[in-house]
Structure formats: structure tokens, C-alpha cells
Amino acid sequence: MLAAVRSAALSGIQAVRVTVEVDASRGLPFWVVVGLAAHAIKESRERVGAALANSGYDLPARRFTVSLAPGDMRKDGTAFDLPIALAMLAATAFIPNDALHGIVAVGELGLDGSIRPVRGMLPMAMHAGVDGPIRAVIGPTANAPEAALVPGLTYWGVQTLQEAVAALCGAPPPSPSAPMARTLVPGVDVDLSDVAGQDVAKRALELAAAGGHALLLVGTPGSGKTMLARRLPTILPRLTDQEALEVLTIQSVAGTLLPGTPHEVPRPFRAPHHTLSTAALVGGGSTPRPGEVTLAHHGVLFLDELQEMPRSRLDVLRQPMEEGRVLIARAQHAVTFPAAFALIGAMNPCPCGYAGDASGRCRCPAADVARHRGRVSGPLADRIDLTVSVPPLALHTLHARQGASSAEVRARVEAARSRQVRRFAGQRVAGQCNARATGRWIDAHTPVDRAARETLTRLAERAGLSARGYHRILAVARTVADLEDDDVVRASHVGVAFHFRTNDTLPSSTGGP
Asked: Is the same domain home to 298 and 160?
């Protein structure tokens, strides 16, 4: 007897339809799974067999052929346990075959018949009705809150295989779950006003938030680089419903979305250790999984000790920084992950970390300082729009709360971002911000007065900047103008942008031979 039920598989952060077919024919008792199934799916024979037996379903001796269609797409994960078990029960007449019509089943089975949560439920639930109307998606109770985010979806959250069978055979379906919250509730534990002094760094932080620009903080240990970076999410614009849904989808696929109903969807803040691998940074694996750049989508990627990361690893950031996405190519398929993040790097100014410190403790030779700073490759440094020195503060100033609060700065950032959204309406610009626009587009569509153009050309030639560097200064100047609610880029805006673009404020050495 033949039975089939719909399920879903993940390709990147998107879901694709998979049909689970089970044929129970006469012959020696045997299991075989076909359809490019990975090892975790082949192990389902043991999980499903034990779950069926411990749930009271004594299957007859048959030859079971389990097919996962389409057969030319690789499938991985444990989410096919439940659909395989249900199709086997239908193929052996434990449940009516037509009970599976219009059903999408997803879930991992425990040996006792319990149904465990799976990663990627949100994109699978969003895809469920793409190929036509369905009756319901049946899956783990723990995944019900994220599935409830999909409007109009009927989701049956079940805790055991017996509950799933009962729901299919006519028992009252489980009550719907409340959806997760989708609006940003800014954290109350950190605020920009907590940072004493550092007015220049705070100004750079505001520009980075307003235009989506990459920022590099250079300073001695303990000067506040990490403290500043952790406050960038508090001044970014609030997540829209669509952005929050994308963040939740990525977390669902990565398996970092906590079960239950969260009270907020904050801007992601990712701060991986500098020893992470390339695959962990941009994504990868035999079945590609999202990396840190994707987990930071619509949020912040903070790379501390930037100079300790190999240059080859840092250089892979160039594509996502420009395009807001990363392409992972394999022999048989390619997957695209979103990666529109705000990059903040932090590094010490020299090998000992104290170049420029008033104590004069640094004795690093100039050659060592140059070699230390040269660990950030030229192509990547060319894509960092803002570089700022973070000097140590006098201890007597640390107790005071100084400057504007995160709420005040965020209001200015949101106003500047609104101008950019209107400017880039109809344009394919990731994140709808100045940093993502091409240099040619900015040059052609940004009003620049004559004095500003002359100043920009003169400064760029004096500093020996590349064409990209020229356009990056123009993009930052456009952001400065947006914050000042000015339609025209003026010479003063160019001056601010050039100040943050160059490294003149950073010490080259403080002593030594």
C-alpha cells in the first residue's frame, strides 16, 4: 500500500517542498530511504521504529521504501521523522490514507514517541501554502509560537505521535498558540549616555547608525571600544515587522531561536571570537548553514581584536559589506544568505596596545606598529568608512553620565534613515542606506555644491585615495547632510567625512629605535 504526506526542507533560509512517500509491500522486513538523504535522515529508521513501537503501533512485517521527492535535492536534518512515521501508519492502515491530504508534517521523534522541536519551522510554515491551500501544518508544540507568525496558517502543535494520529483521525485539534512579538523594545540595561566623554567616537557611532557605514575603533585596552560597540544597537532604527520577521527566520534556521514566546525582537548583536573559522564567519558546510554575517542581518557584527584575524578571513567580508548578501556555492547548488549588517571593528594601535598613551609606556618600533596595522588588508580598509581613535579617559570623569541618551540619538538616526528610504525608493539598495549604494549612483544622484566638490577632489588627491575611497567619502558626507536635514552636500559635510576617513588621528609609533 502506498501513502504520501507533504513536508519541507531548508535551502539557505528558504523552505522547499518535499513529498514523503512510503510504500509497504510484501517481502522480507526491510527499510530503505531514497532521495539523496543525509546521514541524519537515514538514522530515522531507528528513531521512527522505536517511536512507533513505544507508542503502541505494531507494524506488520513489510518491506518499507521511503522516498523523499524531489530525488535530486540533498536533504538533511531530523524534521522528516514525523512525516515518515505518519506515512508509514497510513500505508499500513493504522490511519485513513485520505487523512494526510492537505497536511504538511514536520518534526523530530524521540524514542518514546515524543515530538521534539526542529530548526527552521518559521520558513517552513511560511512556505506551506505556496503550492496551494492546505488544511494544517502539524508539528512540535514548542515550535507553535513561531509558526503562529504566519497569517492565516492553521498549525496543530502536538507533543506526541499519538496526539498527531488522534488529530488526523478526527479528535479536536490543539488550540492555536499566540504569535511571537515582532516589535523592538529597546534594552534598558545599556544606554549611550553611560559612556563618559568620547564625543568623537559617539559622533562616529551616530554616523555609522544613520548611514549603515563600517566603523573601526582604535584605542588602548580599556578605553571603551567594546562599550561603545555594544551601544550601537540601541541607536539603530526600530525594526519593521518585515525586518523582525527576517531576523526571526534566520534565527529559526540557525537553531538560535529560543522556544516559547519572547517579549521582544532586538537588533542582533554578534561578537564572535577572533579565532572563528571562515565557514563560521560567512556560512558554509556540506549543507550550507548561516554564518555570523547572516546572524547579524539587520543588526551589528562586532569584530574585536580585528588585527588578530587572518587577512584571508577578513577579506571574505568584502562581498557582504558591499552587496548585503553572501553566496555559498557548492558543486550541485548555490545558496544565498542575507547579510546586511553594520560592521564595527576594534583593534589596538600597536602590538603592546599602548601607542599614544600619555604614560609613554609603549616602546614598539615603528616597523612593528606599521606591520601591526597592516594586518587589515587594503581592500577591506578601503571599505571601512569611519576610523576613530578612542583615547583613555581620566579616572575622575568615569562616574559622570554625559551626552545624549540612546533615545535622543535614535530619533535623529531614524529621521536620517527616513530620508534615505525615500531617496532609494525603487532602487535595489540593500538596507536602503547610503553605505549600500554604489559610488556611481551616489555621484549621479547626490546634489553636491561646487565648493564641496572642489574640497572633496582636493582632499582625495592629497590623501591619494582610490575611486572607491572618493565615493565612500561622498557617501559619508551624504549621511552627515541627512543628519542635518540638508538636501545638498556641502564643504563642511565633506570635511567631517574626510576627517573620519583618514587615519591621521592614529599614532604611527611612540618610541623605540
From this structure: no
Asked whether the beta carbons of 324 and 438 are under 8 A apart, the reply is: no
Residue with cell 514566546: 261
pLDDT at 174: 76
Overall number of domains in the chain = 2
Cα 203 from Cα 497, distance rounded (Å): 11
pLDDT band at residue 510 under the 50/70/90 scheme:
very low
Q: Give ∠ CA 251-234-297 in degrees, rounded to 5.
A: 30
Q: Which residue has the cell 521534539?
A: 116
Q: What is the DSSP letter of 369?
A: H
Q: Which of 427, 444, 466 is the last residue of a domain?
A: 427
200, 388 contact by CB (below 8 A)? yes
Q: Which residue type is seen at 92?
A: T
Ranking 46-50, 223-227, 293-297 by mean pLDDT, the lowest is 223-227
Question: Which pLDDT band, with edges at 50, 70 and 90, does 261 fall under?
Answer: very low
E strands in 76-187: 103-105, 108-109, 115-116, 136-140, 155-158
Do residues 320 and 341 lie in contact, with contact meaning Cβ atoms separated by under 8 Å?
yes
C-alpha torsion angle, residues 343, 348, 350, 351 (rounded to 10): -110
- Return the C-alpha cell found at 430: 540593500
Instruction: Check: CB of residue 68 under 8 Å from CB of residue 18.
Output: yes
Give the mean pLDDT of 55-81.
91
307 has a pLDDT exceeding 50: yes
Q: How far apart are CA 252 and CA 244, in angstroms?
A: 12
438-457 in b/e burial notation, b at 16+ Cβ within 10 A? eeeebbeebebeeebeebbe
Q: Are strands 155-158 and 136-140 parallel, antiparallel or unpaired?
A: parallel
Q: Give the CATH number of the domain where residue 248 resides.
A: 3.40.50.300
Residue at 322 is within a domain: yes
Q: Would residue 498 count as lying in a domain? A: no
Asked whether residue 477 is domain-assigned, the answer is no
- The residue range of the domain holding 226 is 192-427
186 has pLDDT over 50: no
Pairing of strands 108-109, 115-116: antiparallel
Three cell numbers written together for 110: 524521540
At 151, the pLDDT band (50, 70, 90 cuts) reads confident
433 part of a folded domain: no
Contacts of 462 (CB under 8 A, 6+ apart): none
235/216 Cα distance (integer angstroms): 17
pTM for the whole structure: 0.86
* Range in 131-135, 231-235, 428-432 the model is least confident about: 428-432
Residue 184: pLDDT above 50?
Answer: no
